[in-house]
Amino acid sequence: MKAAAALPLVFAAGRAFGAPARSRLILLGTGGGPTPKPNRAQPAQVIVVNDAAYVIDCGNGVARQMVLAGVALSSLRDVFITHQHSDHNADYGNLILLAWGGTLTSKVNSYGPPPLKEMTRLFLEMNDYDIRTRMADEGRVDLKPLIVPHEITEGGPVMQDDNVKASAALVDHGAVKPAFAYRFDCPDRSIVISGDTRPSANLVRLAKGADVLVHEVMYLPALEKLIASEPNATTLRAHLMAAHTTTEQVGRIATEAGVKTLVLSHFVPGGVPVIPDQVWYDAVKPHFAGRLIVGRDLMEL
Ligand SMILES: [Zn+2]
Ligand SMILES: [Zn+2]
Predict the structure, then answer these.
(1) If you measure from the C-alpha of residue 21 to the centroid of ligand 2, how many angstroms do you get, rounded to a whole number?
(2) Ligand 1: distance of its center to the CA of 9 in Å?
(3) What's the CA-to-centroid distance between 130 and ligand 2, angstroms?
(4) pTM
(5) Among 67, 113, 229, 230, which lies 20 to 30 A Cα-Cα from 102?
(6) Tens-digit pLDDT profile for residues 217-253
(7) Strands, sheet with 24-29, edge to edge from the N-terminal-most edge strand
């Protein structure tokens, strides 16, 4: 309640007795890495405030996961991409195209690192036939002017509307630069999404005192087995160690940032054989005294 009281009055506009809107956070996909998995969809989450949906990352299947979560695609307001790895952006364009193929007629702002503008332009070009056909055949509005991409190259404020204030911090994801974590100050609480990163001081600063931190995680003991089965084992191992966060590290980061709740997501390994929730929990818990949640697809927090 302390955090809510400190927020600008604009958040309370139109609410009975000034009661803050309740934000919903839904994990749409919790598996890390580009390989499709039977048990976890690819990285994506949605924050819903006052029936407006803010999607963070667009892994493969994000539109389908939104529907399964019961969030109307037409409620899509803004899209945030943490970094340009395919497990986070494969369905960036598809999410908006498929929402438009339904009843979306309002503007969608997208935010993310370059080349977001070029990706948007090329996506629209690739789907030009479908867009033109549906405009002529079904009387739809043009999709092109509805998507407004904003490239971000440094940390700081990103956007603010009546529902949320979003800010970003540069994180360290090895060769992928820039990569961002996002913080969303909602009317009732603050939510931070780490994106992919190794332990990052910028992330700790961004997450200071946040109510909820959704952070990527990898489990080293199981990783060795996973790596052994990949043809590019040596390179993959080096990438994982330089660009991601272990179970022990993520607990320490949450402690240092002083967050109330730590939500594990972007599990590596996240596929089969399945690592039981209890294993993840036990590996992180000694390093974080707050509320710890092992994320699953479609979990609402
Ligand atoms: Zn990833
Ligand atoms: Zn990545």
Answers:
(1) 32
(2) 36
(3) 30
(4) 0.92
(5) 113
(6) 999 899 877 778 788 888 877 888 899 999 999 999 9
(7) 24-29, 44-49, 52-56, 76-80, 108-112, 147-151
**Which one of the ligands is nearest to 83 CA?**
2
**At which residue do the structure tokens 């994106």 appear?**
195
pLDDT of residue 291: 98
Q: CA of 72: how far to CAs of 32, 88, 95, 152, 283, in Å?
A: 25, 21, 12, 27, 36
Question: Ligand 2 centre and the CA of 43: distance in Å?
Answer: 10
From first to last of its 301 residues, the chain has per-residue pLDDT tens of 444 444 444 444 444 556 778 999 999 999 999 999 999 999 999 999 999 999 999 999 999 999 999 999 999 999 999 999 999 999 999 999 999 999 999 999 999 999 999 999 999 999 999 999 999 999 999 999 999 999 999 999 999 999 999 999 999 999 999 999 999 999 999 999 999 999 999 999 999 999 999 999 999 899 877 778 788 888 877 888 899 999 999 999 999 999 999 999 999 999 988 999 999 999 999 999 999 999 999 999 9
